[in-house]
Amino acid sequence: MTAIPQNGSAASQHGAPAGVPRLDVDPFSTEFFEDPHAIHQVLREAGPLVWLDKWDVYGVARYAEVRGVRKASFSRRTLRRIPGRVQC
């Protein structure tokens, strides 16, 4: 797992917005399950929100952010307002 230097062109190619740390971390890998604490530490140190290049998704590992994401309510009405979402 490595942090990938941020630059505008590389970030936009992978979908990560500028300013969001990009990581080469696979939370479904054997390495992760062998030592999840080490990888979680890397995720937490990288920032409150990271971009996981392998999966082209955001990741959160800090308690406050995980709790906030988990508590967020996404109704059909809310999803309709998210740009780029398929209409429900």
Task: Describe this structure as you would to a colleague.
This protein is of the alpha+beta class and 88 residues long. The chain has one domain (3-80). The chain contains 5 helices and 4 strands. The chain has helices spanning 8-14, 30-34, 36-46, 63-71, 76-80, and strands spanning 3-4, 22-23, 50-52, 57-59. A 4-stranded mixed sheet has the order 1-2-3-4, with no helix packed on it. The protein is globular and about 30 Å long. The relative contact order is 0.15.
Blueprint of the fold:
Layout: E1 3-4, H1 8-14, E2 22-23, H2 30-34, H3 36-46, E3 50-52, E4 57-59, H4 63-71, H5 76-80
Parallel strand pairs: 2-3
Antiparallel strand pairs: 1-2, 3-4
State the gist of this model.
The chain is α+β, with helices and mostly antiparallel strands and 88 residues long. It is built from five helices and four strands; from the N terminus they run E-H-E-H-H-E-E-H-H.
